[in-house]
């Protein structure tokens, strides 16, 4: 449908010269979009296409603007007409009822007032409500917001209005609230788009799913929780007043989710005050009238819950609501599982498989960061380089299995002897490194001495039945003002080399 406007201002609504040039159905009659088939009624300025269908309907070859407006006023669908700048210049009574605005209230307002999300208004401006958009009406779904804040999904058919010369003069949209099945299809499409978005990580996808579910169910508070014993931890959330934040903890018995976990399936309460849980602590403390939740399973174990709630009661939840709730919870569980797998793979890529210590790549990253931090903070930093003495003999005598057993045992001693802030890694073979933040040479010597004393008192196993004494050579260096990571490593390696050449089982300090 194409309508051209003359002498229209933002203070009121007016339909003047009108022209129907877009293929559409009106009372079962399909109108042509070919301008060559148009006939003009000069006196009233209304143009209908001269199609065969129209020619068989006497009296409808031309229609006055008042009749066209009367048609709009009788339509059950909401009709919104805007000018080129997307200011509202006409709505029909159905639009007033649907959105809850009167015509005077919309004077001077852009159509952004109808959208639930401002980004959708901008996106539609780029897609179809701009002068360069293709002619013709396009059908799509959109979320809108009423005057009272209620958000709803609607089927929309809209496009560009062009004058007789083909120039854009405004826009028109016909809007009908979506049926439940259409609403579900739209939400499923959005859920698929979230899950398949390669530019979002798992946390971003979960947050988007929370927003999607809150909009779909009309319940503004959304939480993805993790359950640890009797503790309920909020990992992600959406709340209109930002009263919730990730990391918030509650006692599990004080949440509605205790019922969800007990049932081990999706459950809902649409009006808590009139339900069997009206005396629940969550209702007394927070006044949440509506709740819909489902357990989240990860690796076939209960991980937490996904739930949506509102301080206002809502209509009873249907079986379809419960099924869709399960789908959302399963999707979130999958995202959590994928995140855990990625975290494990990342940890494996940074971990020495044999000893469980940081591998060369990981410990070098730690050292680079600590050197930079020491430069900024002015705090001391030491590096301890360690090498097991005569390790080749161990491999030659007891085989590589015996050597691996010794390396694992030494790594355990290393971890037990370090401070919490110290970082240990295996560079390769029998060579290890310890990064000692906020530590000068005196502290570094104390760590080395502790290690050597423990090694002297602890034979290391080469098999299930046999253990042998193993000694340790160590080099120690403190970060100097002109040191880089490379020069610091060069100096600590030099100190280790001196310790080994000096008879092993000892400590040498760089520069001493």
Sheet with the most strands? 6 strands, antiparallel
Give the overall silhouette: elongated
What is the helical fraction, as a range of percent? Answer: 25-40%
Number of helices: 14
Portion of residues in beta strands equals: 25-35%
Contiguous uncertain segments of 5+ residues: 1-62
- What integer value in Å does the Rg equal? 36 Å
Oligomeric category: single chain
Strand order of the largest sheet: 13-12-11-16-15-14
The count of DSSP E runs of length 2 or more, i.e. the number of strands, is 23
Q: Mean pLDDT, as a whole number?
A: 85
Q: What structural category characterises the helix and strand content?
A: alpha+beta
What is the first-to-last residue Cα distance? 90 Å
A few lines on this structure:
By secondary structure, the protein is an alpha+beta fold.
Plain-language structure description:
Helices cover 37% and strands 25% of the residues. It is α+β, with helices and mostly antiparallel strands and 512 residues long. It has a six-stranded antiparallel sheet, sandwiched between helices. It is elongated and about 110 Å long.
